[in-house]
Design brief:
It is globular, with a radius of gyration of 20 Å. The protein has 16 helices and two strands. The chain has a single domain, classed as Na+/H+ antiporter like fold (Up-down Bundle). It is an all-alpha fold and about 350 residues long. It is found in: Membrane.
Length: about 350
């Protein structure tokens, strides 16, 4: 394989270059507007709430409003399985990453490394590259199922030192994004069943189609369009929120913390590498093969900075709160800088033909 040519082809892909430029420029815009004072101190938090409560649920649900085929179904199931297995792998492997650390410091670094901001940072980038109604967003949403199961169970127990509580189960199951994902996934899976009423509609090209009555993209575009508008807000609002948050915090202390640098390396570089190596082995052995689009989605999702919930656990339970804050900030900066690199790497890996 000609690596140089593969990189050239990647940068000639308009969707990739647009996503890279859009992500960085809008994050920088949010950073600038916060520093200038246009955005208030809590503006980033407000944007985050809007994205998590409205835009991302709309994006997750809308992505499933499309036809189903065997290949997409098979890949989705493989992604779901891998989305569970990788967290089991990380839970054990992070023990070795932080052997020299003890007590709370080790526990916090392990949990922060296990869980990235796949929802707020990863999915908007996937949507920016492939489009809000692409199969890649389906893969991202399905991949996130395992993430949320482990984040609200293992992550909570590890950080709190307590047993799993009912309120945490409710937070996991009644989260708007989780509800939208499962609702969309179930409707997507059963749409071709004979017992589901079907009706005529128009697809994206204007051609007549006969689909399940709830396929609002074809049967009720006046309902689908508002969701499309809301889904389209996910990426720009998330990027503005990230920039605004970065503009609210001083990098001074974080950049002098060696542990935060070591953590950022593990989270943004080592974790994606572990994913790539294991997925390559699974593809070669044909045990759990994923196609190129699924691979690219998973790499982007795993090259994300600290999950907000994970750092909130650390701060809320007073477990190395300063370290968690510094690590979260620094990993966000590093992830923003390196995301274009990982997008290019994912495209190059796809061109090898190993992931079909």
């Amino acid at each position: 394989m000609d690596i140089v040519k593969a990189i050239q082809v990647t940068f000639e892909n308009a969707n990739v270059t647009k996503a890279i430029v859009s992500t960085i420029s809008i994050i920088l815009l949010g950073f600038y507007l916060r520093k200038r004072g246009t955005f208030g101190a809590d503006f980033g938090k407000v944007l985050t709430k809007v994205v998590l409560a409205v835009a991302l649920p709309a994006l997750a649900f809308n992505s499933f409003m499309q036809g189903i085929n065997y290949e997409t179904f098979k890949q989705s199931m493989n992604v779901l399985i891998w989305g569970i297995l990788i967290y089991i792998v990380l839970i054990f492997s992070t023990k070795f990453m932080y052997l020299k650390y003890k007590g709370d410091r080790q526990d916090v670094l392990r949990v922060l490394t296990d869980f990235g901001s796949t929802t707020f940072f990863g999915i908007p980038i996937v949507a920016g590259i492939y489009g809000p109604t692409s199969t890649a967003v389906i893969y991202a949403s399905v991949f996130n199922i395992g993430y949320r199961v482990f984040l609200y169970s293992y992550g909570y127990i590890k950080m709190s030192g307590l047993k799993m509580e009912i309120k945490n189960l409710k937070q996991m199951l009644l989260n708007p994004i989780v509800i939208a994902t499962f609702a969309g996934l179930i409707l997507w899976l059963i749409q071709n069943q004979a017992w589901i009423p079907h009706m005529n509609g128009l697809d994206a090209t204007g051609a007549k189609v006969n689909v399940a009555f709830y396929r609002i993209d074809a049967t009720a575009p006046w309902i689908s369009q508002p969701l499309t508008y809301l889904a389209g807000l996910a990426s720009p609002l998330a990027w503005l929120g990230i920039g605004s948050t970065l503009g609210s915090i001083s990098l001074g202390k974080a950049v002098t913390d060696r542990d935060s640098w070591y953590y950022s390396f593990n989270k943004v570089i080592l974790v994606p590498i572990i994913n790539v190596v294991l997925l390559a082995l699974l593809a070669v052995t044909n045990i759990l093969p994923v196609n190129s689009e699924a691979l690219e989605t998973i790499i982007i999702m795993m090259a994300t900075p600290t999950a907000a919930v994970a750092s909130t656990y650390a701060i809320g339970f007073d477990r190395e709160a300063v370290l968690a804050s510094n690590a979260s900030l620094l990993s966000t900066v590093v992830a923003t800088v390196l995301m274009p690199f990982w997008i290019v790497i994912s495209q190059v890996l796809s061109s090898t033909g190993l992931f079909k």
